[in-house]
Amino acid sequence: MQPGIKRTPEQSPDVLQVGVASERLRRAVLVAVIAALIAAGCGAHGGPRSGASAGDSLESLLKRPGEDVAVVAGDQDFAAGDVRFSFLVIRHDAQPVERARARIWLARSRTDRPFERATARLEEIGPPGAGEAAFGGVGRIYVAHLRVPRAGRYWLVAEPVGVRIQALGTLDVKRRADSVAVGARAPLSATPTLASVHGTVAQLTTRVPPDRALVRYSIAALLAAHTPFVVTFATPRFCTSRTCGPVVDVVDYVRRRFEARGVRFIHVEVFTRNRPALGYNRWMRQWGLQSEPWTFLVGRDGRIKAKFEGSVSVRELEAAVRRLLL
């Protein structure tokens, strides 16, 4: 259900309550974004537009014509090496900028010259033509891949191609991520299944309608069987980000394309007894997860092959499954 939508006769009071809560959360996020824009020293610059030269610092990039805003990051758990960074660029009027590409410059400070340049691609949130809308009505998100050699705080500027707007952000990179690392063995989590709860699907998923096909297998069983799988940790009903609900829809969409080829797909809820007040459940703790959603690819050898924090598009997930699990 989209946030703030009016109740129809078939909707329960619980569903209506979630819609109201989502609308309140949308407003809170909007306030936070506006505050971030002010903190970043947002404004607008005039004058002729020119290309960035090799000697430009991040500060000089921010002086280019257009709005200065803050990057709205879609993930936060980064380790040195190859970093997948997802983000939104939000105008002063709270509207997202959605161009096909965005240029990225990464430096060790705002006054340093960038040591890394990359191009971010705009990825769809949710499966094509169906599924739950992302929180706040956001339909697409930028994704960039950056090479960061060591831990530390980094500064970046993102500039959607063809738009006079620059977004400033930071990237806090740790020596090791909190979440299970790519290459590490997957935790032997005996996650519940339809069989283990005697078919009481409401214990396993907050999605409406229930994603029954994603709660048939446990992580531990697939590890024991040396079966490659995709597991997503997300809570469609109680999501606290703009992207968590549609991730389950994406995983289910990709499942239909690859399940016949021997890859299995699992959805694990994130809260104890599906109650946010009780905090994250033991499966989240076992995987070192301090946010949601997260999606992992696990190979026949039981090792993590790839992971995605926040939103992952059908294109990204399909490509990863083909390359790493088949």
Main traits of this protein?
single chain, 326 residues, alpha+beta, Immunoglobulin-like, Glutaredoxin, 2 domains, seven-stranded mixed barrel, four-stranded mixed sheet, 6 helices, 26% strand, disordered N terminus
Mean pLDDT: 85
The helix-and-strand class reads alpha+beta
CATH architecture of the largest domain: Sandwich
- How many helical stretches? 6
CA radius of gyration: 20 Å
Number of strands: 13
- The ordered string of helix (H) and strand (E) elements is HEHEEEEEEEEHEHEHEEH
Q: Major sheet, described briefly?
A: 7 strands, mixed, barrel
Helix share bin: 10-25%
Per the principal axes of the C-alpha atoms, what is the gross shape?
A: globular
**Largest sheet, order of strands side by side?**
2-4-7-6-5-8-9
Give the CA-CA distance, first to last residue: 34 Å
> How many structural domains in the coordinates?
2
CATH topology of the largest domain: Immunoglobulin-like
